[in-house]
Amino acid sequence: MTRFWLRLMLRLIVVSIMIIAGAVTVGRGLPPERELLFSASFKLADLNIYRFNLDRQITRSLTGMVIGSPFNDFLPDWSPDGQQVAYVSDRDGSYSIYLADAHGNHTRRMTTDPTDEYAPTWSPDGRTIVYVNEQNGYPQLMLYDVQTDRVEQVTDNYRTHVSPVWAPDGESITFVSDLDERWNTKIYSLDLATREITPLRVGSATDPVWSPDGRYLLYIGGIEKVNYYLWDSTTEQSALLYEGSFITNDMPDWSADSRSIIYAAFVNGSDTHIYQLDVAECLAAPATCTPQPLTTLAGFYRTPRWRPQ
Q1: Residues ≥6 apart with Cβ < 8 Å to 153
Q2: How many whole angstroms separate alpha carbon 23 and alpha carbon 144?
Q3: What is the domain partition of the chain in residue ranges?
Q4: Residue whose C-alpha is closest to residue 54's, from 38, 70, 73, 72
């Protein structure tokens, strides 16, 4: 009898292992689930960071686990491998940048600088974070080495430098500045090897974001009703992508395949939602292309970011 039960248990163990292995194999063959990272305020609470699984319609909080937390956590950005998050918080009395894992655990403050810091963005190789630091009232661009904690300032003049993003090759940083004419913001590129700064286009613009394939630079033009434009790096010409019927000052984000963008925009006086635009459709007919809403829960959404796949 004992041998019978031992044989039965062994067979059950083998069958269980085969089922688990089959499930793992099937899971690896499925396409990755679509997931967003964003900051949001629900029911007039403070801003917190959330992960949102679009396929399962599940929202999980990474920060502000305690309802009514008096702190604001915002401007999140994924590391390239999707395993870490950088974001801004005022929990220590000033705007500082914090790092955490993808579940919001193991949180640490990035630097001990007492001045305001914001707009963290990971480099394509995950080794460096570019961010903005207030220097005597003038925002300057800084580099933070993730491995060594070393900080380096890469701009230094009495001008405003904001909205830094990495070029897809990681060799330059694109940003917005009034470098040539005060109060008139244009887009510039900082070559990290030579530290040379050059303008990318003529005219006022904000919130640049490179497509992952490196062809297009998306940026915002306009003041009240904004428009999205694409600067083509192959022709060095700009084209209208979407003639906005919305109000936003939010930095958009590209999908991994460079085929669509997402952004947050107001739908009334207090609520925003996250929308998606098809790039090919909008380039063909910018006045009539239709944004697709990705969120349904009423709230104040900001800076959506696709999780890297």
Answers
A1: 133, 135, 140, 141, 142, 143
A2: 41
A3: 37-306
A4: 38
Q: How many CA atoms lie within 13 A of 286 on its CB side?
A: 12
Structure-token match 């937390």, residue found: 69
Half-sphere exposure of 171 (CA within 13 A, CB side): 5
45-64 pLDDT, tens digit per residue, is 789 999 999 888 899 999 86
* CB atoms closer than 10 angstroms to residue 184: 11
pLDDT in tens, 121-180: 999 999 999 999 998 889 999 999 999 999 999 998 889 999 999 999 999 999 999 988
Cα 87 from Cα 117, distance rounded (Å): 10
Amino acid identity of residue 84, one-letter, is Q
**Rounded to an integer, what distance in angstroms lies between the CA atom of residue 220 and that of residue 203?**
11
Contact 65, 50 (CB under 8 A): no
Where does 37-306 sit in CATH, by number?
2.120.10.30
